[in-house]
Here is the input.
Amino acid sequence: MTCFSVKHSVRAVVRFILVSTFTCSLILGWGILVWIPPAQSQLPSLPTATNNPLNPPDGVIRYGEYETAPVKSPLDNTILFELTSPTIFNRDNIPQDKLPVEVRAHQVNERLWRALTRTATVKQSSTVTISTLNNRPILQVSDDESSRPIRLVTVTEPDADFNGKTLDELAQEWQTILQTEMVRFKTLTSRESILQRSGQALQIVLGLLIASAAIWFLRRVLTRRQAILEERYQQQLTAMAEAEKVQELENVAQSTTLEREEAEAREIADVRSQFLATLEHQFSVKRRLDFDKFLKWALFWMFVLMWYLGIARIMSILPILMRWSVYVWATPLALIAIWFGISLAIRISKSVIDRFMHSWKVNPLLPFGEVQRVALRTTTISGALKGFVTFVFVLIGIIWTLSLFNIPTSSILAGGAVIGLAISFGSQSLVKDLVNGCLILIEDQFAVGDVIQIGDKGGLVENLNLRVTQLRNGEGQLITIPNSNITD
Here is the structure.
C-alpha cells in the first residue's frame, strides 16, 4: 500500500510539472511566434499578411485617402503614435514616388530600437530634439557619447492633416512622447530597477510553486477519498446482495404458510423495493464521486489559470519580456477560455445524461421486469451518448481554435467531409456495426444479462456496446460478435 501511494504521488507530481511546463510553453511560445524582431534590415519587404493586394495589410487602417500605421514602443509594444501616408489601393502596383505607410512605420520602429539601445549604454538619458530639413520638422535623438544623432521620423503634411495640427505642433507632441519613452527605457533598464523587478518575479514564482503544492495536495486528498468511497460502495453492494439472498430465503420459508399468490406478490414487491433502493444508493454514491471529480477538475483549471496569470504578470514587469506581454492577453487567454468552456460543457452534459438515465431507471410507473431491463440498457446507452457529446464538443473546440489562428475552417471541414466519406467507404463493416448497435439499443432486442442465441453461438450477454456484443457460453468462453453479424 505504501509503495502504491509513493508511485501515485510521484505520478501526480510529474503530471503537475508537465501541465505547468505546457502552460509556460503555450504563453511564451505564442509570444515568440508573433513577435517580429524590430531590427532585421533597413529596407524591409512589404508585408504579405493579406492575399488581396487591394486590402490594407495587418496593422494598417485605411481612412479614405489616408492610411495609418502605429509606431510601437520596443519595450512593451504599446502604441506611441501613428504615422499617416497617402492611400495605396494596390500593393502590387506601388508608385515610385510613394512609400507605403507600413514600410515607413517599420523603419521608424527600427530606428527607435537603435536609439533606445544606445540610451541603455550611456550615463544620462538621450535627448529628443527637433530640426528642420526641406521645411519639414525632423525628430532626432542625441546623447553625450555620440557625435551624430539618430534621425527617427520626419513629420509630413499627411501626418499633420490627419491629426488636425500644424507641422510644428505635431512635432512637439511627438517629441514629448519620444522623450518620455527614452526616460522610461533608461529607468527600467537600470541595474536597480532590474534587480527590484527580478525580485518581484521570483516572489511570484515562489507563490506559484506554493499554490501548486497546495492544489496538488488537495487533489491527492480527493483521489484518496474517491478510492475510499468506491471501496465502501463495493462493500455495501456486497452486503446488500447478501441481504437480498437472506430475504429471498425468508420469503421461501414464509411461502409455505401463506397462499401462493400472496407470497409471490410480496416477493415481487420486496425485490422491486430492494432493487430501486439499490439504484438510488448507487446514484447517491455516484453523485458524491462525481462531485469529487468536479472538484479535481476545478482545481486543475485553477492551476492552469494561476500559472497563466503569474506568467503574464512576470512578463509585464521584466523589461526583457515586456515586448511579449501584449500578446499574452490575446490568443493564449482566448485559447484557455475556449477549452475551459468546452470542458465545462462536456461535464454538464454528462451530468444531465446521468440524471436523465437515473430518472428513467427508477420510474415507479414501470413494471419490475421493465425496470430491470432499463437498468441494464442505460449503461450502454449512457456510454454511447457521452461519447457522442464529447466528440461533438471537442469538434466545436477544434473549429474555434482554428478560427482563432485565422485558419479557414470551411475548407478544412469540406476536406474532412471528403476524407470521412472515403473512410466510410473503406470501413463499411464498422459503420454497419455502429448502426446495428444503435438499432439493438433502440428496439431493445436484448440487453446485458439476457441469454440469447445468435446463429450457432449462444450464451449470457456479458457486454454490449455500439460495435460488438460479447457472450459468455456454458463453458466459460467469451464470444465476441460484431453487431453487423446479428441479423435475427
Notes: Residues 183 and 206 are 31 Å apart (CA to CA).
